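Lab meeting prep.
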Amino acid sequence: MLELRSMTVQTYFYLEMKYRLAIVLTVMLTKSYFQWNSENSI
């Protein structure tokens, strides 16, 4: 039972890490896209 719990915790942290990384990448891409868009539109 204890092994199963530690595995679940590891999986949760792994998924959370990937999720946060995806959010950070999306935010960075969106920011750079809007910056590039505003620079080119002028």
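Slide two material, second protein:
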Amino acid sequence: FIIQNITIENKQIVFTQGQVSNLRDQCNLLKQNLSLMYLHHQFYSNFLNIEEKIYHQI
């Protein structure tokens, strides 16, 4: 899962990868990317669980 050219909004701060200039902003962007990847992983896991339940009902 690779994040490219993504805009993340968190706590009224919006970053894009091209706008990050200092270490604090880089840290915030990395944390936000990790949060987004975690949410994506959760969503995908839930989707797979639902898909598996449907498969077993057939």
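Talking points for slide two:
The chain has a mean pLDDT of 73.
Helices lie at 23-57.
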